[in-house]
Design goal:
Layout lengths: L1 E6 L9 H10 L2 E6 L7 H10 L3 E5 L11 H10 L5 E10 L7 H18 L3 E6 L2 H11 L7 E3 L6 H9 L3 E4 L9 H9 L5 E3 L21 H12 L3 H15 L5
Parallel strand pairs: 1-2, 2-3, 3-4, 4-5, 5-6, 6-7, 7-8
Amino acid sequence: MLIETHCHLDYLKAEPLEEIRQKISEAGILKVITIGVDPHNLDRVKELSETFPEVYFTQGIHPHDAKEATEVEFNKISTRAALPKMVAVGEIGLDYHYNNSPQDIQKTVFEKQLQLACDHDLPVVIHTREADEDTKAIIKNFSRYLKRKGVLHSFTSSIELAEFVLNEGFYLGFNGIITFKKAENVQEVVKITPPSRILFETDSPFLTPVPHRGKENAPYFLPFIASKIAELKDLNLEELKKQVWENSLNCFYKLR
């Protein structure tokens, strides 16, 4: 049994969604979380969760789109927080690689959404890239109030940040990056992460794992992530899958 904890179903273009859902089922994936990222897709991910029983959703403004965030989006997040299939506030955080939004606005929008998660007792889905120190400082300010914690998804940052957030009670999400030849740094983070703090994700349609590089990524490639993590950590695959199933339910408590 597997749970896809981070994908973008509304971005998938290569196949009809019904075909993707069939392949997801055949891969043993029983639950899928599709992620809200900007003012233009918050409604769509909610609609997908209402259409398909296995699909859950999040609401959040990605750091790339922080400059577009208004009270309209914050109110949507707040209003929808009580819905049974809204499992987290996210994708939120900081991205200083592209700086698509000014850094000061990114930090303000990140903090605003962390506060919403605190107010509504929800976990968070955090994106961080080349922003380790500011991510650490902001999480440190909010962690004690964020009872449900959450996940740093698609983790590619330093071992130091990994150790900090693990100590704070967060999970780390790993995807197809760990199968890439030049991803030694991420593989090292996988090795030091306790099995009880790992989540599987694809981040599809991005970051397609080996051996399917060049194709559009999809949630049904999740078993490749699970197998690679078991290999890196020298763990029995089935035991790891059982552990990560429980991790996913513990992180996103509405999945139960």
